[in-house]
Amino acid sequence: MRLINPRSPLTTITMPDLIARMTFSRRVLFMPLNLAICAAVVPDGWDVEIIDENVTDNPHVPSVEGVDAVGIGAMTTQATRAYALADEYRTLGVPVIIGGIHASALPEEALDHAAIVCKGDAESTLPHALNDLTAGNPREIYDWADYDPAPIATPRKDLLNPADYLVFNPIQTTRGCPHGCTFCTTPAIFGRKFRQRDIGDIVAEIRQARDEFNSRVFIFSDDNVAGNHKWALELFDAIAPLGIKWASQCDILIARNDKLLRAMRRSGCLGVILGLESPTASTLQQAGKRFAHAELYLRDIKRIQSHRISIWGSFIFGFDSDSWRQCMDTVRFAQQARLCMSCYPILTPYPGTQIFDQYRSEGRLLTTDWECYNGSTVVFQPKRMTVVELRHAQMAAFNEFYSISSAFTRLRILPLKANSWMANIAINRGLEYYYSRKGRPKPHFRDFAVWDSEQRIARSLGLTGATLPPN
Ligand code: B12
Ligand code: SF4
């Protein structure tokens, strides 16, 4: 069986040399954990190989030799390429199975290109699909909801080349999330079923990575590693003796549990990505983040930081109440909270989410070219900004947050946070390089004020059409 990770716009549309600069010359940030897990659950009797198009210079050329079936996994931004590959294999007469987050949201669309679609976890579906294929009577859709949930599998990393990836040993400890944010694919596709992996398996995978690859710092590739505080405490106590360092994603409710924060730090937690989305209450409301309270953000962030756990704040730009000033205030908030890192993806209405349904029914989707669903392209009509303004606000946010003066204020010199400094400088250099290659000045929020006054002058003169340059 051949498993394929299709090219992602992150590696093709973004400058590949920029990616290399920001990943210490590795080709790709993360290894395709989904396919390494698929490989682990392929039934006995099948040979398996993984092809990651993102680590090769040339696109994969489909061939039939030695291939009984092809499995393709894709998030939305990879779907177009996934379908092109599936079409080529279908023409060659090879049965194609498509799975992953996008096909789980739109199985009928995926069926136009593949013989079989697996909805949800591969652990619960792929063995059934392959056994039926061998028996000659496969179904079109295998939905994980129809089967007992299978335990989270240990990935087959032996099928990939560690030298290609910055993060070769991501460890998954949980799957899903107990919350139901309106823009998020996870509850939309997997429901709010929050599943935890066997702690013994997690410890064994970490030990193996430590022994085999000398890995000391791990990324727990979860949506919400501490979605269940009681279980998370057990996990953190179990990994504390391993002497590793780790980082992951979770929700801000950890701030209310000192015991958990102490256990996190004791177990080697360096930092967490928090999906803060916005420090504005009305925006959090549209995001459906019912458990989060903007007015408590600063206090909660300080509490987490007081345990020497760094915070990477993830914010989203483009909700209906967002104006450019509000986006600017979000960056100022991130600076005031002294976040070590932050990111500002553009709101993207992924298929399957409440926001996708809402924007489609309101006629606000500008495209369903899935390659554009990448967090850097505006694919819907925003309410309080133009498309160009929204993209400008995103890049102004990155530019201002990662400026050297901002880094000095947030990180200070002492005590030296070497990792955070390195990451901040890498991103600062990356932005510098990006705009010098584009031959354009770096964007700032002050451009909006200039632009506003130009518009006012233009209007008073009866002229129209002044726009900011695209990023
Ligand atoms: C780590 C991570 C990243 C990493 C690396 C991802 C990677 N491997 O390339 C980084 C930081 C680079 C990243 C970037 C982005 N990410 Co991300 N990321 C994640 C995260 C937290 C974990 C991914 C992971 O390893 N999952 C573990 C695997 C095992 O889960 P899985 O992929 O769902 O696979 C299972 C099933 O889907 C199925 N399956 C998958 N493939 C296949 C194939 C076959 C044949 C079969 C049968 C089954 C099957 O079986 C698997 C095992 O059970 C997920 C959250 C999540 N829930 O997955 C978000 C997530 C995948 N990311 C998301 C997004 C939006 C992005 C970005 C676009 C963000 C941005 N704005 O920049 C970029 C795009 C990256 C790109 N490649 O182009 C969204 C995807 C939404 C969507 N509809 O596409 C997710 C779901 C987050 C969310 N909650 O919305 N991401
Ligand atoms: S808390 Fe994060 S992972 Fe959970 S539903 Fe909300 S955005 Fe998704």
Which structural traits does this protein have?
five-stranded parallel beta sheet; six-stranded parallel beta sheet; binds iron/sulfur cluster; alpha/beta; 15 strands; single chain; binds cobalamin; 2 domains; pyruvate-formate lyase- activating enzyme; 471 residues; Rossmann fold
Characterization of this structure:
The structure is a single chain. With 471 residues, the protein is α/β, with parallel strands linked by helices. The protein contains 19 helices and 15 strands. The model has no long low-confidence stretch (mean pLDDT 93). The site of cobalamin (B12) has 37 residues, from strand 2, helix 3, strand 4, strand 5 and helix 5.
Topology:
Layout: E1 2-5, H1 9-12, H2 16-22, E2 28-30, H3 33-41, E3 49-52, E4 70-73, H4 79-91, E5 96-99, H5 101-105, H6 107-111, E6 116-119, H7 122-135, E7 141-143, E8 165-167, E9 174-175, H8 185-190, E10 195-196, H9 199-213, E11 217-220, H10 229-239, E12 245-250, H11 258-266, E13 269-277, H12 281-286, H13 297-305, E14 310-315, H14 324-336, E15 341-343, H15 354-361, H16 387-401, H17 404-411, H18 418-438, H19 446-460
Parallel strand pairs: 1-3, 1-4, 2-8, 4-5, 5-6, 6-7, 11-12, 12-13, 13-14, 14-15
Antiparallel strand pairs: 9-10
The structure holds cobalamin and iron/sulfur cluster.
